[in-house]
Design a protein that fits this description.
Helix 1 packs antiparallel against helix 2 and helix 2 runs antiparallel to helix 3. With 163 residues, the chain is mostly helical.
Length: 163
């Protein structure tokens, strides 16, 4: 491989990284707008009930904090304990949100079995998120697909890349 081929490969990689960053930013903005739209619509429906408005505000703040903690975890260096601490904080916030939602739903549901089912689902969700964010090791990595999105990176295998 000569110098011009290496320059072409580096230029293509740089363009690909830039496209990936732009597409990720566009998806994040779209999700933020969707959440804001849903929150505004829900707030209009709950204007008469201050408890519902308070729950909506707490849930939105919690979701924002979870997203921020996950972003900080991804920006933290892989070797330090900062990544694990940010993931633990994200888990604690998501578990709190699961409990808050379970509480609100169990108040609206019939007492007894439906309330137990709601709390059981909240507990299972919190445990699965704990495993995915905190317990599972970073060495497992992420599965990165090649450009055409079919899952094979030319040799029939998916590429595993650690962050």
């Amino acid at each position: 491989m000569d110098a011009s081929d290496r320059k072409d490969d580096e230029a293509r990689a740089s363009q690909s990284d830039e496209r990936r960053r732009l597409s990720t930013a566009a998806i994040n903005v779209a999700l933020l707008l969707l959440i804001a739209d849903c929150s505004v619509r829900t707030a209009r429906l709950a204007l008469d009930d201050p408890l519902d408005l308070a729950f909506l505000a707490v849930a939105d703040a919690d979701l924002t904090a979870v997203g921020w903690c996950l972003w900080r975890a991804e920006c933290s260096p892989a070797g330090g304990g900062g990544r694990r601490r940010w993931r633990l904080a994200a888990w604690a916030l998501s578990a709190a949100l699961c409990c808050a939602v379970a509480f609100r739903v169990s108040l609206a549901a019939m007492p007894g079995v439906p309330a137990i089912v709601v709390w059981g689902i909240a507990l299972c969700t919190a445990l699965v998120v704990l495993y995915l964010l905190v317990v599972r090791k970073d060495r497992e990595g992420y599965h990165v697909l090649d450009g055409d999105g079919d899952g094979d990176a030319g040799d029939g295998e998916g590429v595993v890349a650690s962050r």
